[in-house]
Specification:
It is a single chain. A three-stranded mixed β-sheet has the order 1-2-3, sandwiched between helices. By secondary structure, it is mainly alpha-helical. Helix 2 packs antiparallel against helix 3. It has five helices and three strands, in the order H-H-H-H-E-E-H-E.
């Protein structure tokens, strides 16, 4: 057993020696940024409420106290959308900054620099597509919307009191036209007003 781990350690040292310590650090930084963006996505996406399509979580009869609570809830929903957009932008800015550092590094391997440039291009493309989806969904009458592209899946958070099946189809069609993502890979999350 000790012999096995000794050989494993020697192999790891040789690999680091071939790649170089600085390049290994850069690779780990890029991996760390990717992990941070993914975790941010999971945290921000976890805040949405999954509400069955066509249902509402609003009561039919409510008092003045309920109306005041509803107004503060509305402010909470608006704050949710604003803070989510800011969090998403902050995470992307951090990721792009790390990738630019890799590209500017004289110590980085050319393959690492090329991969960093490709990652920057993917982030820029996703930003444009998300913006297009959000604009088109809002043009269908929704007050607010956030789209998040993560690989081959797209999550769309919509401010609504309940989606009708036709509205779900419209949103999925918009996502398909903008990204080519199959409807089965599109998750629509309703954020109630």
């Amino acid at each position: 057993m000790k012999k096995f781990f000794g050989k494993l350690w020697q192999g790891a040292k040789r690999t680091v020696g071939h790649i170089g310590k600085r390049n290994m650090v850069l690779i780990l930084c890029v991996f760390g940024v990717g992990l941070a963006v993914y975790l941010n996505f999971l945290l921000f996406n976890g805040g949405g409420e999954d509400i069955p399509y066509g249902t509402s979580n609003m009561a039919d009869n409510y008092s003045a106290d309920d109306a005041a609570a509803s107004n503060s809830s509305l402010e909470g929903v608006e704050n949710y959308f604003a803070s989510t957009v800011l969090d998403r932008q902050r995470a992307r800015d951090e990721a792009i900054e790390v990738l630019r550092t890799v590209v500017a590094s004289s110590e980085a391997l050319e393959t690492t620099k090329t991969q960093a440039l490709e990652d920057i291009s993917v982030i820029a493309r996703d930003i444009e597509r998300e913006s297009n989806i959000e604009t088109l969904v809002k043009s269908k009458g929704f007050e607010d919307c956030i789209a998040v592209i993560s690989g081959n899946t797209v999550n769309v958070i919509v401010k609504t009191d309940g989606l009708l099946p036709g509205e779900v189809a419209q949103i999925k069609e918009i996502v398909y036209e903008q990204t080519g993502t199959e409807p089965v890979n599109v998750k629509i999350i309703e954020k109630s007003m």
